Amino acid sequence: MKNMNDKQILKRVRGVDLNLLTVFEAIFNCKSVSLAAKMLNISPSAVSQSLQKIRNHYDDILFIRQGNVLQPTLVCLSLHDQLAEIMRLVDVSLNTINDPTKKKKFIIYASHYVASHYLPKLIHALEHQAPNIEIMHYTLTEEMKVDELLINRQADLIFDIHPTTSHSVISIPFSSEPLSLVCSANHPRLKGNVDFSELSAERFCGLHSAIPYIMRRQVEFSRILEGRNFIFSSDSVMALLSIIENTESIGIMPSSLLAESCGAKIQAIDAGLHLEPITFYFLYNKHSAHTPGFSQFLTIVNQLSTVSSK
């Protein structure tokens, strides 16, 4: 119902020159056509023509000349009372974005893992450095097109595992995550140093994904751990972690999980494997970089980066 009312309002308003309302308010405040023209930086004749259009629209003379001053009629006073509030709301709407004292709301897209691992640190930093910033998080899924989300201003910041080639989007390395082969801390067989051959008898958990980068890494892991026998796969790192914690299966996970609270439930398997780290990037629309509020937000995100070459 609200959308229908909005459409009806647009149909009624579209034929009205809204600049006339600005001219009306200028005349009301200046009580003079010439002074209103000077305020608006237009000619007095343009103001007079606009005033005549307003008079025709409202079917009222609106202003009565008394000496060198234009005095408002009752219709004029009533119209001003309504327009003054509208002008105030328009001013607030136009200037809120650029007002550093106003609360800013930014939308972040990130996977479940990134959201649970990095966003708490970001929110903690914002609490102390920018309490006027609010974050809205949405889960980044494989079918989403990162470039389009940013270019169409549906997202302010996105955390992803690969940079973009778009000229309109900036990609900056945020974190380089080492990877470890892990198992449950209570695993009955895998303790201390493990011979590589022992792994062939174990069941694996794996991340399934159609993202090219992850698929390339899976091929790499398959070469290193040839003949893996899978018992479970998921597109969620957190689901894989839960399975590894509570079963005898093993898998490849970010090493940082070992140092966090879940580290008491999982352990690294020392089998002499060398796994290349995975790099996370943060991406944003380059046209937003110098927007008041967002530039401050980017500074805080950069402070949390663990990649030295930023």
UniProtKB/TrEMBL annotation:
GO terms for molecular function: DNA binding; DNA-binding transcription factor activity. Residues 16-73 form the HTH lysR-type domain. SUPFAM superfamilies: Periplasmic binding protein-like II, Winged helix' DNA-binding domain. It comes from Hafnia paralvei. This is LysR family transcriptional regulator. PROSITE patterns: HTH_LYSR. Transmembrane segments: none annotated. It comes from the Bacteria. Keywords: DNA-binding, Transcription, Transcription regulation. InterPro entries: LysR-type_TF, LysR_HTH_N, LysR_subst-bd, WH-like_DNA-bd_sf, WH_DNA-bd_sf. It holds the Pfam family HTH_1. The keyword Ribosomal protein does not apply. Belongs to the LysR transcriptional regulatory family.
